């Protein structure tokens, strides 16, 4: 009975720590967004829908961070990290489109080509995706090793010596 009480207390403490850490991470990220949005506000005059595009990205990204943190220690954490990396890649491709923007300012037409930025951002996102996939594989490998160690009987002294001699 005492063991069950300790286990329940440890679980509650673990969940509380995860929730607190997720809340702090989400708050810090939102504070950074809030400060940066003050500097990016003049840019929204030239690019219609820029503010909404950034807000949508930040909201979904914060939600994915919070959910990944709440599910830390399980396989779901890694799936949400992969989803976060895929979301960044997809959002970059959808929001930046072809990578060429035209802007009219006081009668002048400006064409901005950001292909290089788009390629670099997608490659960095691809590195993040690869990292998440490798972390998932490592997690599954660790769980398989634990299960294998628990299912095998311990070696006797004679079996260990025979193994070393062969």
What do these coordinates show?
The protein has helices at residues 2-40, 50-70, 75-96, 115-151, 157-165; strands spanning 100-105, 108-113. With 166 residues, it is mainly α. The chain has two domains: 1-41 and 49-72; 73-152. Strands 1-2 form a two-stranded antiparallel sheet. A hairpin with a 2-residue loop joins strand 1 (100-105) and strand 2. The mean pLDDT is 83.
Q: How many distinct folded domains?
A: 2
* Radius of gyration, taken over Cα atoms and rounded to an integer in Å: 25 Å
| Largest sheet features | 2 strands, antiparallel
Number of helical elements: 5
> Helix content range of the residues, please?
over 70%
Count of DSSP strands = 2
- What strand line-up does the widest sheet have? 1-2
Residue fraction in strands: 5-15%
| Mean of all residue-level pLDDT scores | 83
Quick synopsis:
By secondary structure, the chain is mostly helical. Helix content is 77%, strand content 7%. It has helices at 2-40, 50-70, 75-96, 115-151, 157-165, and strands at 100-105, 108-113.
Features:
elongated, 77% helix, two-stranded antiparallel ribbon, 166 residues, mainly alpha, 2 domains, 5 helices
Walk me through the topology.
Elements: H1 2-40, H2 50-70, H3 75-96, E1 100-105, E2 108-113, H4 115-151, H5 157-165
Antiparallel strand pairs: 1-2
